[in-house]
Amino acid sequence: MARAPALLRPAALVALLLAVGAEAHYAPALPDSAIAKPARQFGLPFTGAPGPNTWLLGQGYGNTTGAYRQRRSTYGNLQGIHAGLDFSAPCGTPVHAIGDGVVVDVDGPHGSPPHNVVIDHAGNLSSLYGHLQKRSTMKVGQRVKRGDVIGVSGDSQFTCVSAPHLHLELRDRSHQRFFNPQPFIAADWNSLALASGFGRGYEYDLTSPRRWQSPDTQPEARRGGRLLNEFAQPWPPAPGGAR
């Protein structure tokens, strides 16, 4: 006679459900042929004019000096690069959907705490809105239009004075590939870069000093891939030695 399976303890059941939920969010990386090409088809996540009292481009996507310093820690699973755009903004600034789509995650397993939202778009693209101040009122499965407010910006350090900003990523729907959002978003990127709030540029590899030194030449990242910026002759060097 078969014995009935023992009931899982509550903690084990929660862990199992979280693991199943996380697996449901990740799949094999989609091929290029399945993903929409960049055509400035999206908009910015903020409205109104940029400025010191509204919002600014804080940190660009890619081989930034900030990401280089944390290539083996914070960004180690993203090949060492900053896999999104950071927009500096006071806490509570409304965040807008960059394109039409469907909400697929509210506070899902995608990092960028304290709160995040993921929207699926046409062309097998997904946008992640991270470091939101509070849990979004959006519901999974809810359709949104470009420009709809999907939350309010927060602070990655949870203080609203340390690092208030929005982290925006553009991924394939498998959440394995991370793209430079700039070619996909219609904006005056040259002007936005001039007023970059963090003042951070790109890390040099002095053996190939022109590589990855402009916003439109940044590499794609793959989850779990090898570090792209483990440079033989980095400049500037990481303060206190490489982490």
Automatic annotation (TrEMBL):
Presence of the UniProt keyword rRNA processing in the record: no
Organism: Deinococcus metalli
Biased composition (Pro residues): 234-243
Sequence ranges assigned to domain M23ase beta-sheet core in this UniProt record: 81-174
Keyword Ligase: no
Annotated spans, Disordered: 207-243
Signal sequence bounds: 1-26
UniProt cross-references to InterPro entries, sorted A to Z: Cell_wall_metabolism_enzyme, Dup_hybrid_motif, M23ase_b-sheet_dom
Name by which UniProt lists this protein: Murein DD-endopeptidase MepM/ murein hydrolase activator NlpD
